[in-house]
Amino acid sequence: QVQLVESGGGLVQAGGSLRLSCAASGRTSSSYAMGWFRQAPGKEREFVAAISKNAGNTYYTDSVKGRFTISRDNAKNTVYLQMNSLKPEDTAIYYCAAGYLWLTVKPSEYTYWGQGTQVTVSS
After folding, report:
1. Angle at the Cα of 89 from the Cα atoms of 120 and 105, rounded to 5 degrees
2. CA 30 and chain centroid, separation
3. Strand-by-strand arrangement of the 18-26 sheet
């Protein structure tokens, strides 16, 4: 089992940047594919990005390609989401998740979840 804790959210102006971190404890995070999801008020949770166990593969939803970068440091049991050129529509609670499958964008196919961190982008 693994516990996930996100950090790094906050309030930023449009065009700004934030870096989210997801620290894993318990079973090593290198055993899992990792994903970032987000959920805006009144909307379903949506996939943002994923990275394979050994960081050899990444995948992004179209709306963040070229702006967001997912990475992981397995020695630190931490996954990152670098978010650049932020837009108001990126405003949401961001969650990291760990799962056994590669590649899946379905929230139901991730096993472990963090509590989320709020990202607010002002126009």
Report:
1. 100
2. 15
3. 2-7, 18-26, 78-83, 68-73
pLDDT value at position 31? 86
Determine contact, residues 94/12, Cβ cutoff 8 Å.
Answer: no
What the block records as the tokens of 1 is 């089992």
Closest CA to 61 of 91, 33, 32, 37: 37
87 C-beta neighbours (distance < 10 Å), count: 14
Is residue 122 helix, strand or coil?
Answer: strand
Does the structure show a pLDDT above 90 at 63? yes
Rounded Cα gap, residues 103 and 37, in angstroms: 14
Q: Could you tell me where the beta strands, DSSP code E, fall in 1-123?
A: 2-7, 10-13, 18-26, 33-39, 46-51, 58-60, 68-73, 78-83, 92-99, 112-113, 117-122
